[in-house]
Amino acid sequence: MRAQCMRRTPLSVILGLLFLSMTATSKCLGKYHELLLQLRRQADLMQDTSTLLDPYIHIQGLDTPGLKEHCRECPGAFPSEDALRGLSRQGFLQTLNATLGLVLHRLTALCQDLPEAQQLVGLNIRGFRSNIHCMSQLLRSSSEAETPEPTQPGPGPTPPPTPPSDAFQHKLKSCRFLHGYHRFMHSVGQVLQEWGESRSRSRSRSRRHSPCRAPGDTALARPCRGGARRTWPFRRDRRLMPRGQLPR
Amino acid sequence: MAVFAVFQTTFLLALLSLRTYESEVLSEPLPLTPESLKVSVNSTCQCLHLQWTVHSLAYHQELKMVFQIQISRFKTSNVIWVENYSTTVKRNQVLHWSWESELPLECAAHFIRMRSMVDDARIPKPGFWSNWSSWEEADAQNMLGHDPLFVFPKDKLVEEGSNVTICYVSRIHQDNISCYLEGVQIYGEQLDRSVSAFELKNVSFIREKGTNVFCKVDQGGVLGGIVLFVSKVLEEPKDFSCETQDLKTLTCTWDPGSDTGLTKQPSQSYTLFESFSGKKTLCKHRNWCDWQVAQDSQETYNFTLLAENYLRKRSVSILFNLTQRVHPMTPYNLLPKNVGATEATMTWKVHSIGNNSTLLCQLELLAEGKVIQQSNVSIKVNGEYLLSELEPDTEYVARVRCAYTNHFWKWSELISQKFNTAEAAPSEAPDVWRNLKMVSGHPTVSLFWKPLSKVHANGKILFYNVIVENLDKPSRFEVLSIPAPASSTELTLDQCSYQIHVTAHNSVGPSPASVIVVSGDPENEEVEQGRVNGTEDGFSVSWKPQSGDATGYVVEWCDGPQDLPCVLQWKNLGPNTTSTVISSGDFRPGVRYNFRIYGISTKRMAHLLEKKAGYLEELAPSDNPQVVMSRLTSHSFTLSWKDYPTESQPGFIQGYHVYLKPKAGEQCHPAFEKTVLPEDSVCCKYTIDNPEQKTFVVENLQPESVYEFIVTPYTSVGEGPLDAFTKVTTPDEYSHTLIHIILPMIFCILIVMIICYLKSQWLKEKCYPDSPNPYKSSVLSLIKSKENPHLTIMYVNDCVPDAIEVINKPEGSKIQFLGTRKSPTETEFTKPACLYLLPTEKNYSGPGPCICFENFTYNQAASDFASCGHFPVTPQAPPHQLGPLTSPENLLKALEQNYMNSLGEIPAGEANLNYVSQLASPTSGDKDSLPTNPPEPALCSEYKMQTAIPLGLASAPPSENSSLSSTTLLGQGEHCR
């Protein structure tokens, strides 16, 4: 088993590097909506427990009464949804990128336990991070004139995993980690959903004020004329509001 | 010098003391107590590791000693293990000893002490134990953290089938702690207040990720657990062998058995060791390993394969000579060469083995998956072999394998090659049969032929040639070319005889011809049909041999049911054959098949010999006939099912059962048999054993009774379904008699009515003419027949009319006036014939009310007499005093004479008549409005019919106020006496 994992590792590394190189060399999607839609779809995919958690529980024999209920996310291991919602967009993206980096690292340690799923999910995370990078660039390009805002202190990235004291603890910790990962991706999906909604509201509001279009759209290359005030639906200082509430 | 002396003295003393000591040691045992005892805990192996020294030994002294070790658990008094450990001890040597605990060491404190004894042969006296060392405690619990619950041993690796003791240490001192093995609760022994142990016996492998054992506090979130890694038992490698393909490399293979790999333990490893050369190699694969043959011409090899994992080692060895383990590589370049219709040459190559080695190669030829030829060829590098006796246009597979000639060990792998032989002309004539029929008065021959088998076709058949030769006119030929894969054609002939040749052609040439002779004369179908029995193998058909020189027989049949188009089948048989079994995969149970047996004459002409019909397996009828019921009487009815086709039934119809459900309590007729139906109802059954009888009369029934019947056919297997009985109710016994009477009566009445209608004019004239003739009236006969004394004809003589005026009616066509007496003025307009009864009072100034008699009591004669004029009537004057014809009196007399002739005498006073008008005068009751112009027809009361009523009913006295209505007229009529 270990040998298989070792055999797979170079392949996954090669594929990962290839993917990263492709994403690095390929151009980012210039349209905000398409990028956001891609991120939301990826988040939906990554929150699916059948990709990681369920097979892990089954393989490790944790799907027995008395054990399964202990496979719950440790509080604070991942940023909560409220914490994510409280971040600025750039902060949110930075936190997401950092957290997924740690997840990727931790998943590599799980290679022995879930070789195939880990490989697939690893590719997904890399693709997701690539899109985060593009979104961050898109947001940054539209706010170059503004002073950079320090990253919103969130719950902090997940600390690197300590070597498991024994196999049983390792199983439970990994299970809790995977549970937290899926929950985190669900929260990310929720926040990204609100991005779309708030943009729609902002767009309708901006339409009332100005005919200028949002960045990422095809009209982005044409700056607003006639001294019209440039409207940006995602102001850095504007916090995401809960669904159903209008920003004040 | 002094110093030297002192040194010498000291040395001697020391030497002396040493000698003394040595003599003491060797002469008598010394108590050598173990010292510096240290105990450590190894959790991985659950071992207590002890180390100590014996300081009391002299330099360079080696003694064999025995150390007795005591181990106590929880407390020093609880000794659980005592063991004597013998070893040779040197001075200051650190001694080691380990002890593996069944109970995880973390769950209990252990105490160890030891003592020693010299056990050396150089010491003659038996030794004695030294004092015990002090107790040393090994308490792994001190290394635990602050968790409330611990389970041990952690990550223990055991083999399948082992017994394992696990334990937990609780810091919360609660009793409600439960432990589970893979979710199933286990029960153990409480060793201490906070420690419990569980013994798992004969543990089994569950998964590579280990078996989960956990304990938890009930109703709490405290959880502790371990993973027990249970490995499968390492198996000894099976089928270990080595061989070489080129005498350069040996390849050893084996069956590794189960993989013992776990998360905790890698899969077992394999090491190959050769004892003669002393070399070994770690195998990279779990079931094979390569070994480079030494260049020093080593011929014999002794290999040992060692399999090992963390828990066990297994090995297996083989000894062999290298040249006896040669397994040649697979031959290559196997190709066909010079392929003909019946021959082909195969060539191939082999890899050389060593120098000038010879290989034995085996060439096999396969057709349709079966080996049909096998040949052995010895070659060095290139092989070649000629294959003969091949079939044309056939696909073959040639395959070759080779073995080392010097010492056969194994055949190489096979190499195969397909090839096809060339085509040849078909070797056999097609099997041809014909079917003769008349189409539009012309004899038509349908020719059928079977495709040639692959063996005889020798290639792809492209077309069939049909040559039709008129035997009566030998010079006339007709050639038809029919492309394949057609298998039939149709020819329209005349009354001549024809010889037909059929040949099959492929790309090489034609087949031999199949010849058949047909005649335009229709076949003799007057052959009685017999029956044939079907068996599992088919139909066993036999026939009487044809008298004469038959060259063969043909049995002909249709594969499908009768209601489907016939797929003509036939079977050719030799001249000495009189029976055969006709089998076909298309034969189905319950289907009638008809067979015709033909004899083939020397002139190749077929004659129908016999006809047979049969079933592969007869079945019970699935449907019942449609029965028509007729001739229903009170005691019988007739059933008929003449349309029922017996030929298309799933068996030979042997007859019919007529079931009749009688009314309750009624017994079956003697001809019927009492039977019980499947639904337990009683029924009467009549069996008709003639399948051609399709009518049946059910008799001896009760009138006005309900019967149910069903007619079901039966075969040798069973009868049809008894599901739908038909109800019939017998009629009343006399109803048919009544019908016989009533119907003619109704018919007669209708005839009379029709006649009456047709003769209505005549009847009208006879019975109720517009100008009635009392002497012709049938009323008279009616009156006579009834002989009613109260009914009689009114005698005009008895009436004392005031006046009578006859007025012409407008319907001149019906009312005939005496034309000769009509005045021109009267004939100018048509008036109803009326009798105006005019009053005789003097003051009467206008015309009185008139009455139009249209009564058969007044005949035409009366009307003739009464010219339409006013007849002054005097009541006092007797009727006979009236004037002759022109006077009313004369008229009345004439009437009286006519009536008296027919009526005879009627007693006076009883023969009074009252006339009841049918139409009231439009001015009735108003005398003043009487019309002043009597001839005006509008003022007339028109009497269509009169009825004579007894006089007594109209006895009212006359009155001047009487109107001219009918009542008035009646009142006035009272005067008619």
Helix and strand topology:
The complex is a heterodimer of chains A (248) and B (977).
Chain A: H1 2-25, H2 32-46, H3 53-60, H4 81-85, H5 89-109, H6 115-141, H7 167-209
Helix pairs in contact in A: 1-6, 2-6, 2-7, 3-7, 5-6
Chain B: H1 2-27, E1 35-42, E2 47-53, E3 62-73, E4 79-90, E5 95-100, E6 110-118, E7 136-138, E8 149-152, E9 157-159, E10 164-170, E11 177-181, E12 184-186, E13 189-190, E14 195-200, E15 211-217, E16 223-231, E17 238-244, E18 249-255, E19 269-274, E20 279-282, E21 288-292, E22 300-308, E23 313-321, E24 332-337, E25 344-349, E26 359-367, E27 370-379, E28 382-387, E29 395-404, E30 415-420, E31 432-439, E32 442-449, H2 454-457, E33 463-470, E34 477-483, E35 488-492, E36 497-505, E37 514-519, E38 529-535, E39 538-542, E40 552-558, E41 568-573, E42 579-582, E43 592-600, E44 606-615, E45 628-630, E46 637-640, E47 655-661, E48 673-676, E49 682-688, E50 695-698, E51 706-714, E52 726-729, H3 735-758, H4 760-767, H5 778-786, E53 835-836, E54 850-853, H6 860-865, H7 888-903, E55 914-915, E56 941-943, E57 948-949, H8 966-973
Parallel strand pairs in B: 9-16, 38-44, 54-56
Antiparallel strand pairs in B: 1-2, 2-5, 3-4, 3-6, 6-7, 8-10, 10-14, 11-12, 11-15, 13-14, 15-16, 17-18, 18-21, 19-20, 19-22, 22-23, 24-25, 25-28, 26-27, 26-29, 29-30, 31-32, 32-35, 33-34, 33-36, 36-37, 38-39, 39-42, 40-41, 40-43, 43-44, 45-46, 46-50, 47-49, 47-51, 48-49, 51-52, 53-54, 55-57
